[in-house]
Give the backbone structure.
Amino acid sequence: MDAITENLDAFWSGFLTSLGICLWAMVGSLFLGTVLAGCRVSPVPPLRAFGTWWVTTFRNTPLTVVLFFFAFGLPAIGINASFYFFGVSGLVVYTSAFVCEAIRSGINSVSAGQAEAARSIGLTFGQSLTLVVLPQALRTVVPPLGSVIIAMFKNSAVVGAFGVGGDLFSTGATLTSAQGYANLPVITGVAIGYLAITLPAGAILQVIERRVAISR
Amino acid sequence: MKLRRKILTASLAATIIGLSACGGGGDDEATAPVEDSPEFEAGTTMAELAEQGSIVVGTKYDQPGFGLENLEGELEGFDVEIAKIIAAALGIAAEDIEYMETPSAVREEVIEDGDVDLVAATYTINEERALRITFAGPYYQAGQQIMVLTDNDTITGPDSLMENPDAIVCSVTGSTPSQNIQEYLASPEQLVLFEEYSLCADALTNGQVQAVTTDNVILAGFVSGSDGEFKLVGEQFTEEPYGIGIEKGDVAFCEFINETLAAAAESGAYEEAWETTAGMIEGAELPELPEPAPCA
Amino acid sequence: MTTEAVLYDEPGPKARRRIRIWTIVAGAAIVALLVVAVRRLAERDQFSMEKWGPLISPANEDFASVWRVIGEGLGNTIRAAVLAMLLSVVIGTIIAIGRLSLGRTGRIPLVGLVEFLRGVPVVVTIYFTSRVLPDFVETSGWIGGEQLWFLVIGLTLYNSVIFAEIVRAGVLSLPSGQREAALAIGLTNAQTMRSVLLPQAFRIMLPAIISQLVVVLKDTSLIAVVGNYEELVGAGERLYIILGNPIQMFTVIAVIYIAINYTLGRFAQFLEHRLSRSSKSAAVRVEQEATTAGA
């Protein structure tokens, strides 16, 4: 257990870095995913095609490949940013495809009468989507969306391999392979770090689910 | 990258030559003649290996010039040739060598577990490792250096990293160079780590990092393949003697390897091993076989 | 019923004009984006035959070797994914039966295990198997290579608990009359589970199992971050280091992945559609459990 107690500082800063990545990626992927869902249900064919392409591409490609394209592909065509930015962006783009699908299936779950009523009182497509359909879709969307976000928190462990230094997973890799600490305690420490993010997230999700749940 | 192309082309050519040579019964690649049933004192590792007629060698599969698996699944590099020289002295032909991939993190372990008979894998001799295994050699003396873009005039060596805290240095996760460089950095954020050096070279080309650091030979490979895009700066600031890892305490085997290396240097087999592998990298100088370290 | 019909009426002349304007604007924006990307790629020589040749031109000297390595990588990916799926289904079913048949206190350790493994990243479990396992078990002689099994076991640790949840949801979604009827004709609890509940649950779960296969196929690539098993992404990595064409290589790898996973995804949808005629809600619920669990 020395491996953990001697390196509490490293674990703590790794935890904070990972938490930061998770929060940025959560905000980003929820926003982007919602926009994409809007594209996919809009009446404009190019936007629908774009949304479909996006979802098909990023949902079926391994995260490692997506992150590779961000860390090495974009700079190769002259787009430079920090590896941290690329790592978070890759995570956002990958996760947004899942967020989009969760929201879209939520929109599908809202009964047709709601949208019809919204239109009949003269709301536009944008208004009926944002004022009537989405708020109701949110309720059915919360459980799957929550799972997507928690999965993303776990996926954040992969960005460490793409130049984002100092996150929980790469802290563990450095401690074991470069500084020679025993594997078992270090990996246990890393696992606890991620559980400290995912378990409370799961609990918060349940509270939100209960809040938004309505009997229909 | 040009170097990669060169190694690839060379490897493909070697395969074709190797195939045609098979028919003729000759072997173009042999660097040292295989001993004809050599005699060893009973009970030694050498006697055992010679008796069994095969040997398991741990090496790297992704290190251009030292141990790289080509498209045909064959290994080539200086480490591989050194292993062949040792095998030949034991009366084992090149085709009877069984290779196992040993990345940096597992090298001591595979030796301790007896999974391999020896490890030749750009394996720096150091005290920590010598507690767990025995090193024969060294057979090559490398040193850590810094590589930058040719038009970079601000980074002139490891010491200028401290003065340029915005410059990012790239190295490989869990490697000795990544640990050595840390005392030269203004902050830990200056270091970026990847799984492989080629990723560092790509990041350097892309302008994502400003410097790459590792052993000079590896960097020299990238410099020569870059068409003048990269250059080395500053002196070698560490000494990295590459040794051959064997089971802890096998002094007889260690001394045998050292004698074999000395004999290979004498006969020109050592030189040939270098010339056909890492020596193909432009600007790579023919090394002298370093003085062997005492076996323990 | 399609989505758009919910959200908007059949557009009239005015709406159609508006849609047409938006179509032009959005289309132009997308085309502009594409043009910029293509020009940037061309400026940096990313369309050269030197970089694409080994991948697309059979006349290229390396073409055959490159595709042989990619093929082997793909084979390794599929082997690892299928093994991990089979193991996960078996172990997951056992965990699920345990959870369903043990009492309230008896299942606490199982629930704890499930929660623990669900909360840890798969890359951490694979890291665990490839670094810690060899410290305790002799792994070097394992058939198929220890790296394969590090990956398979790492994937199984996570996916078996996902399957446990899928199986549990599948069994619970069956009408309670099934179990009651089985017990009434004198079957034991174990017989009821084995010959009545599980077979029906598996039928409902089939789409979910296929969806999860997509997740597992993608997750095999995580070994590229921690180990040496040469699956598709690892093969691409080795090839591009030799050939010097990372963007082209990973584009091809991504296309292969998308083709396989898209096909599997459609197949899952097709199965789900067929099943939904009989027991819609159950299939949908189980499917949801699967698609959202992995990502």
Remarks:
- Chain A is about 80% helix and 0% strand.
